[in-house]
């Protein structure tokens, strides 16, 4: 006889483990199934985010930023550091330890919240009297039954047609985090979040980095003024970003990878690189879920079809995160996971897609929430804009990092904040104030009237809000 649960979550990434914990907090008997393994074959919950995404990439970004500061910025602080070297193996080992701490933390949270954890692959076996039967294939095989099922199986890296990932020379985000030595020449296809972050890591450590982007504009989803400022900074750092390219034949050889492409001028270029990172997006992960066993509806991309509340076409089956529509962001998955657990309990879970923040953890960091200036123009919305440069911020000067700005966009009539866009130091932290303000439908004037600590980077946020009314105090 199979074990019966109120809620079973398939997938232990940000959407899945958070959904399981919230459901348990609400009094349900909960199980979470996740198949991710660590190097020793043990459980490694946390999904792509913890294992080969957000967490390890930030660990490498931090290590490489320390190296960059030691080599290029310590001197201006009066610090002499000679013969600074990077032990790549140690850097990777530290990254792995950070990942393990997060894996172990999730297992602890399951135990604390009385969530039953199954290490293996979960797939639908069929409908049952108590809801749905789910097969777990791990070290041992078993079947469990659930009244409610939350699918949170995430996404996989999209490969270039005809160029599969071998994770030796042609790398996904997974292989990009496990490179054992600094490549002399590194090529990346795709100038999105992964491309820019991984390109930044290896550029700081000494690689000659070229990023190829098919689109004619840089960071098309970002406010144009902010994107231009970021591009200027990356160009200055030596990150080569080519826009409007057409990638042709890619040859993966013993000594590296050759990428043939046509640049924006129509010239044929041959790029030889030691490693190639492909970051052209991600695809929903429904392989092996056995959706057809219960008639679960998928769309043409393989994503699970859901309504605004994350309900699928089947009663008692829900889906959240990368495997459904919407932005593929860990924090979006978490919010959906909480909302679904609360909806199962008869509560009113809340996710506001208009106030989901976006961050790129390069240096300078890029962060935004709400609509861009080009979107407001396209929608015919009358707006006011205000900007403030970090160059005029005392804390940024003290940090020695004055690149970038904060930009506010507010309704021309009501002054309600419609979007906030930032490029500069630690803007990943500053953006939260804008998210809170937009959730409460604040005006630019509200932020302008709030006292901000001095000296702090957050004063740039206040000053940009003041700039909407053309009354900055420090610029």
TrEMBL record:
Membrane-spanning parts: none
Domain FAD/NAD(P)-binding: 5-337
Protein name per the record: Dihydrolipoyl dehydrogenase
Cofactor(s) annotated in UniProt: FAD
Additional remark text: The active site is a redox-active disulfide bond.
Keyword Ligase: no
Family: Belongs to the class-I pyridine nucleotide-disulfide oxidoreductase family.
UniProt source species: Limnohabitans lacus
InterPro entries, sorted: Class-I_Pyr_Nuc-Dis_Oxidored, FAD/NAD-bd_sf, FAD/NAD-binding_dom, FAD/NAD-linked_Rdtase_dimer_sf, Lipoamide_DH, Pyr_nuc-diS_OxRdtase, Pyr_nucl-diS_OxRdtase_dimer
């Amino acid at each position: 006889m199979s074990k019966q649960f109120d809620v079973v979550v398939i997938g232990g990434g940000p959407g899945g483990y958070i959904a399981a914990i919230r459901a348990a907090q609400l009094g349900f008997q909960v199980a979470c199934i996740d198949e991710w393994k660590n190097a020793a074959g043990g459980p490694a919950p946390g999904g792509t985010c913890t294992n080969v995404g957000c967490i390890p990439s930030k660990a490498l970004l931090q290590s490489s930023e320390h190296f960059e500061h030691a080599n290029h910025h310590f001197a201006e602080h009066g610090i002499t550091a000679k013969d600074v070297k990077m032990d790549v193996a140690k850097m990777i080992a530290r990254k792995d330890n950070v990942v393990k701490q997060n894996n172990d933390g999730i297992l602890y949270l399951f135990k604390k919240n009385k969530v039953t954890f199954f290490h293996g692959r979960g797939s639908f076996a069929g409908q049952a009297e108590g809801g749905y039967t789910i097969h777990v294939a791990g070290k041992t095989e078993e079947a469990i039954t659930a009244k409610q099922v939350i699918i949170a199986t995430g996404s996989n890296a999209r490969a270039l047609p005809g160029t599969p990932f071998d994770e030796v020379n042609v790398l996904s985000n997974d292989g990009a985090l496990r490179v054992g030595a600094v490549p002399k020449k590194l090529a990346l296809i795709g100038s999105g979040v992964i491309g820019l972050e991984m390109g930044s890591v290896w550029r700081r450590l000494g690689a000659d980095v070229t990023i190829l982007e098919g689109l004619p504009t840089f960071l098309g989803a970002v406010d144009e003024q902010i994107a231009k400022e970021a591009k200027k900074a990356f160009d200055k750092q030596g990150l080569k970003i080519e826009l409007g390219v057409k990638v042709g034949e890619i040859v993966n050889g013993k000594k590296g990878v050759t990428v043939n492409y046509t640049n924006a001028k129509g010239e044929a270029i041959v790029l030889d690189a030691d490693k190639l990172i492909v970051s052209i997006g991600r695809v929903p992960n429904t392989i092996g879920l056995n959706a057809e066993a219960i008639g679960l509806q998928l769309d043409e991309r393989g994503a699970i079809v859901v309504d605004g509340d994350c309900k699928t076409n089947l009663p008692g089956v829900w889906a959240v995160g990368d495997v459904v529509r919407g932005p593929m962001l860990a924090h979006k998955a978490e919010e959906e996971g909480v909302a679904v657990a609360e909806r199962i309990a008869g509560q009113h879970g809340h996710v506001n897609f208009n106030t989901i923040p976006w961050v790129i953890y390069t240096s300078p960091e890029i962060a935004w929430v709400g609509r861009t200036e080009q979107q407001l123009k396209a929608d015919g919305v009358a707006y006011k804009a205000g900007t403030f440069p970090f160059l005029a911020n005392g804390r940024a000067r003290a940090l020695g990092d004055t690149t970038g700005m904060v930009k506010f966009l507010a309704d021309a009539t009501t002054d309600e904040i419609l979007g906030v866009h930032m490029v500069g130091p630690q803007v990943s932290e500053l953006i939260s104030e804008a998210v809170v303000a937009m959730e409460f439908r604040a005006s630019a004037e509200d932020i302008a009237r709030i006292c901000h600590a001095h000296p702090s980077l957050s004063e740039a946020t206040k000053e940009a809000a003041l700039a909407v009314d053309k009354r900055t105090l420090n610029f």
